Amino acid sequence: MAKDHSSHRVNLFTESVIREMTRINNLHDGINLAQGFPDFDPPRELIDAAKTALDNGYNQYAITWGAPSLRQALAEKFRRDNAVIVDPDKHITVTCGGTEAMVSTMLAVIDPGDEVIIFEPFYENYGPDTLLCQGAPVYVKMRRQGDAFVFDPDELRRAFSKKTKAIVINTPHNPTGKVFSYDELKTIGDLCQEYDALAITDEPYEHILFDDETHHSIAALPGMGRRTITVNSLSKTYSVTGWRIGWAIALDEWITTAIRRAHDFVTVGAAAPLQEAAAAGLRFPQSYYRELAQGYTHRRDTMLSILGEMGFDYVTPKGAYYVMTGYPDCGFDDDNDFAIFLSSEIGVTPVPGRAFYHDPESGREYIRFAFPKRPETFAKVRERLSRLADYRR
Prior knowledge:
Blueprint (H helix, E strand, L loop, with lengths): L16 H11 L3 E2 L11 H12 L12 H15 L9 E4 L1 H13 L5 E6 L5 H7 L3 E6 L1 E2 L4 E2 L2 H7 L4 E7 L11 H13 L3 E5 L25 E6 L12 E5 L2 H14 L5 H10 L4 H24 L12 E4 L9 H12 L1 E2 L1 E2 L14 E4 L4 H11 L8
Parallel strand pairs: 1-12, 3-4, 3-7, 7-8, 8-9
Antiparallel strand pairs: 2-10, 5-6, 9-10, 11-14, 13-14
Helix pairs in contact: 1-11, 2-9, 3-9, 4-5, 4-8, 10-12
């Protein structure tokens, strides 16, 4: 076919590198540490709640912007965990995962030419989401400083302009594991207020924290309540990445209305029985979240132990379930080449660092591993990565 019938907007970005690495992993029967999903079951109580919902007739459309039971549970959760009071009828939109919540939010608030500030490295959807909405991404680089990634407040200030419509925040952060401090969020919030910009904050890892870190929601900071949209999902906290239940919370009712309009025509609504199960999960006791963090602390430490033994120069994550790392000298100086080699020859699949930068060269020295895995999976990872000794220079 001679004529290119694809749209200009989708030619502005490539397909997901993360999902591409999953396909490569499957070709080589590798251990998938690229895509961030657990290889263990979700809580039994959550599965039982879904079965009960199916048995009790929740098999047709829910209200487009979310089942009342789930929106009420979300309002309770946001007050309890995030110290923000919301109206379940006016401020919450339930979506098909956090991914849809993010793009529906951008469709709701971004006009052509609006600038959207994005910290990089970044979760790979943020740039394409902005471009799909005909916005202009403005990237602010977080740089490695010792055992952490940090941003320069002066560089961030220079990124703001009269064209800035929003800034995207992800804390705890994918891919670096950074947890934004209260002071960092205040710096961001002050700039949002100075430039009349919105904060779109993505917080699916809020309960996966290490080393006594504290999660802060920018929506709770002074002056930020009505100019923040908080995106979250069930996926990571409850180990159900395939359920695709997410939400966007905006205290500005005009923004909520706009999100609901976009959401209505993007997906109509999330799965009704899973929304009922989600409402039950959100009311788990606080002990569930403590045990979740403890379990992930052990997984993180196991993963770091393996990487340290094998010569990887990692950055210690303080939250989420990923680790960004340099890689040992096995004859490769390119992240993509090393990631494919690791998958095809060693049988362990990471994501090349380029997936998280708008300029692939900026990610050249990094790869990312996900570690929501069982002990027996880590044992296999350790054994397979030990084969790198045969390739080391």
